[in-house]
């Protein structure tokens, strides 16, 4: 499961304004026309997907419910995915 909050560098309590601001920053940073990194397009798409889900109240509620369920069903796997996503974003390739 993709962590949309991590893709935007936000916590799950982020407001819509925080989500919009984080998306604009990530989109500007990772836009393939402005960033020559090999994974720029992938990170840009991840930010777009995260914004699409988190900016829509219905999709966000469904995502949050599923996210909570996954944390309860398999917390070890979820924790590993979150940490991998976190380190992927902060450590250079």
From TrEMBL:
Gene3D superfamilies, sorted: DnaJ domain
Alphabetized PROSITE patterns for the sequence: DNAJ_1, DNAJ_2
Annotated J domain residues: 3-67
CDD domains associated with the record: DnaJ
Any single Pfam family the record assigns to this protein: DnaJ
SMART domains xrefs: DnaJ (SM00271)
Family annotation (PANTHER family): CO-CHAPERONE PROTEIN DJLA (PTHR24074)
Name by which UniProt lists this protein: DnaJ-like protein
UniProt source species: Simplicispira metamorpha
Higher taxonomy: Bacteria, Pseudomonadati, Pseudomonadota, Betaproteobacteria, Burkholderiales
């Amino acid at each position: 499961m993709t962590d949309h909050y991590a893709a935007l560098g936000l916590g799950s309590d982020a407001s819509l304004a925080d989500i919009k601001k984080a998306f604009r920053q990530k989109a500007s940073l990772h836009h393939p026309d402005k960033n020559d990194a090999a994974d720029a397009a992938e990170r840009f798409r991840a930010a777009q997907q995260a914004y699409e889900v988190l900016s829509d109240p219905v999709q966000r509620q469904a995502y949050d419910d599923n996210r909570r369920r996954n944390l309860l069903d398999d917390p070890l796997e979820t924790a590993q995915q979150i940490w991998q996503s976190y380190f992927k974003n902060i450590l250079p390739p």
